[in-house]
Amino acid sequence: MDPTARAPAAPGGEIATGADCPLAAETRSGGLPSDPRRRMECLLIAHPDVAEVAVISRPDGNGRPMCTAFVHLREGLAGTPELLTELRALVCRRPGCCLRDIVATDVLPKTLSGKLIPSALTEMAVRRDRDLAG
Question: Distance of alpha carbon 1 from its chain centroid, rounded?
Fold first, then answer.
């Protein structure tokens, strides 16, 4: 498999990878998908330091959906505060895109067939929130 190839990131578990976001059939203006999570994934994967990305949505304390992005960086790169701030700014300056958090991770949880496991990402986000809170 070509590591620079990009597969669309779908709620069903596919992960965006590579250089383009070929979601033309599902796009609005600007060539980005209409689904906010997919739009954020496309923006993040376009960054040269990002190898894989997944964005999940879960309610905040008031029941509003908030997104958390998990990024797997290219080999040899670290998720420094500066890089994570840069990635968050890349997303949040676009209308309709707002990240609650962005997390650098060594691996995105996948099934044996390579599909993303969203429940594992949600669990990672909940654990992270608990760790930060206390």
Answer: 21
